[in-house]
Amino acid sequence: MDEVFAQSKNFFHLPLNEKMKVLRNEKHRGYTPVLDELLDPDNQLHGDYKEGYYIGVEVPEDDPEAEKPFYGPNVWPADGVLPGWRQTMEKFHHEALEVAKAVARVIALALDLEVDFFDKPEMLGKPIATLRLLHYEGQISDPSKGIFGAGAHSDYGLITLLVTDDVMGLQICKDKDAKPQVWEYVAPIKGAFIVNLGDMLERWSNCLFKSTLHRVLGNGQERYSIAYFVEPSHECLVECLPTCKSEKNPPQFPPIRCDTYLSQRYKDTHADLSVYNKHQT
Ligand code: OGA
Ligand code: NI
């Protein structure tokens, strides 16, 4: 975690023109500038006051699997710009997946499923798993004016493993339906993962596990975090689990393929890539 934070700082300290060379591509890999993402359009004036960097599962261009929307080669800062950077990120990506699988086994048991339910090939055997470095520049948020580090949202997949530095900022709302909503800070714990439940888990479990509504408020201090988003295979049909429905408790969501669902969620929250054409040389 310490190494990833150190290398994340090295990257975000680069001049903007250097970072724009590794701008996010259509496979959701690479750099996302400040305001690229708008998570809560109903309550936000602009996009999020954060910049980020997406690193997915590395699949070489000539592998047939690279045709899938969330598979393909990553984009990396040019050799020599940030020595050791790629190795640090790949190591974290690898190890975080094992942590996620361990958490998924606990979730499986809690849902009365076989312990290895999420280990199957169509589940986390061939996952879509994305490491995202985040940097909040120190803008002060003002909810009444619609200014947020990250607008209120829940993540899309099974779970997210989140590591934060020691600057307060992350808030969760435990009761999404309460009016008005009550927001609580989540205190950072050194060396720990914060586990946010995602919307696919809410769909699988028929709302037994509700996804975690969360947001980030800036307090004027610079802040770094590391998110690791965990989703099943592209083809996985996310549908109400047999242990989570009954005659009295029918499924609340229709089945949906993981890649279809994710593509829509990314499209809804990220700027169209054509807005960046003016930056290209
Ligand atoms: C996210 C997120 C929280 C944080 O990237 O989805 O909620 O603390 N990040 O940066
Ligand atoms: Ni989130």
UniProtKB/TrEMBL annotation:
Q: Which InterPro entries match?
A: DIOX_N, IPNS-like_FE2OG_OXY, IPNS-like_sf, Oxoglu/Fe-dep_dioxygenase_dom
Keywords attached to this entry: Iron, Metal-binding, Oxidoreductase
GO MF, one term, reads: dioxygenase activity
Q: Name one Pfam family in it.
A: DIOX_N
Q: Which family does it belong to?
A: Belongs to the iron/ascorbate-dependent oxidoreductase family.
Coiled-coil residue windows = none
Q: Which residues form the Fe2OG dioxygenase domain?
A: 127-232
**Sorted alphabetically, which PROSITE patterns does this protein's record hold?**
FE2OG_OXY
Protein's name according to its UniProt entry? 2-oxoglutarate-Fe(II) type oxidoreductase-like isoform X5
